[in-house]
């Protein structure tokens, strides 16, 4: 491993956290705007939900095909280049006049915004070993805050200048972030003799040979499916009677999710102290219970906010724990471990978006909550039937 910098300064951690959040946020600006976008393009709920699915599938493809490149190329240049390409995808979305052009821009943005998942293992590499979980927790808090605050900012900007405004603003911010990363990041290159096909095949080899990675990937997949089930259909619930909220008001619910995400930040520190099993078990139980309050949210805003807080707290807590556990393995292969884990994670997110849109169209908010509870219960069954022995 060659690098020009040892350790992480607080300022660099902040920069990487903001960059990670901004990159991944680009996949979520559409969620509070789905009702407005559906009206603008004359779409059904299922068609509008596919915009979110396209972002998730683009992200999953990037995780599998692009993130392993971090074990092959100099990472600063790779990160800056991908950040600029993600900005280009948002420009396409901002200019779109048809659903399919919007889906193209959304998918391209998703593909290259996986730069966030190159920043996370880079932070783990630069961090001191005894602080790795804490640093990963901080960076991942930035990531989930980006996902959640994206909704708030998108809603507010839509009220000011229409739904396209957020994509113009975000593309400019991504270009500025690329410049900041070029100036702030150290040069880091892994020593590997693998070519690109070998890198990709090694991702599958790691997945097949490593039960710990498989276990944590399954947990991540089902956990993030829960997250997507909640957030994909929430805009439809809140835009309908009895709430009839505006895009800006719907986006404000992202603040509740952000509070939950911040609450999960210490999970990495607990994992560093050997409490990964306990944090995972508590998180999965609370995740299931969160759907009780969420189901009551169709009648009560307070109940919905409680459900959001608990669900986002537990999703982020389990996710940070998963990543801290797998980053203790094979330092020279962290980008490939990330690719395997996060591909599974965002496939779960894409599946959750499809399930959520379909459940809402056919059974309303009660159907969405029933689907979320079933997935949460399945996650607990997976954990309790012995997979935890492999962690």
Element layout with pairings:
Elements: E1 2-3, H1 10-25, H2 34-41, H3 45-65, H4 75-95, H5 99-112, H6 116-126, H7 132-161, H8 165-184, E2 188-189, H9 196-209, H10 211-239, H11 247-263, H12 267-272, H13 276-296, H14 301-327, H15 334-384
Antiparallel strand pairs: 1-2
Helix pairs in contact: 1-6, 1-7, 1-8, 2-3, 3-5, 3-15, 4-5, 4-8, 6-7, 6-15, 7-11, 7-14, 9-15, 10-14, 10-15, 11-14, 13-14, 13-15
What would your notes on this structure say?
The structure is a single chain. This protein has about 400 residues and is mainly alpha-helical. The protein has one domain: Growth Hormone, Chain: A (Up-down Bundle), CATH 1.20.1250.20. It is about 80% helix and about 0% strand. It has 15 helices and two strands. It has a two-stranded antiparallel ribbon. Helix 10 runs antiparallel to helix 14. The longest helix is centred in the last third of the chain and has 51 residues, at about 335-385. The protein is globular and about 55 Å long.
Briefly, what is this?
By secondary structure, this protein is mainly α. It is built from 15 helices and 2 strands.
Keywords:
two-stranded antiparallel ribbon, mainly alpha, 391 residues, 78% helix, disordered N terminus, 1% strand, Growth Hormone, Chain: A, 15 helices
Q: What's the shape?
A: globular
What low-confidence regions span 5 or more consecutive residues with pLDDT below 50?
1-5
Structural class: mainly alpha
CATH superfamily: MFS general substrate transporter like domains
Q: What is the ordering of alpha helices and beta strands?
A: EHHHHHHHHEHHHHHHH
Compute the gyration radius: what is it? 19 Å
Q: What's the helical proportion of residues? A: over 70%
Give the count of helical stretches: 15
Under the CATH scheme, the architecture is: Up-down Bundle
Q: Kindly identify the CATH topology.
A: Growth Hormone, Chain: A
Placed side by side, the strands forming the largest sheet appear as 1-2
Question: Would you count the extended β strands for me?
Answer: 2
Q: Which range does the strand content fall in?
A: under 5%
What's the mean pLDDT score? Answer: 87
| Largest sheet composition | 2 strands, antiparallel
Give the termini separation: 27 Å
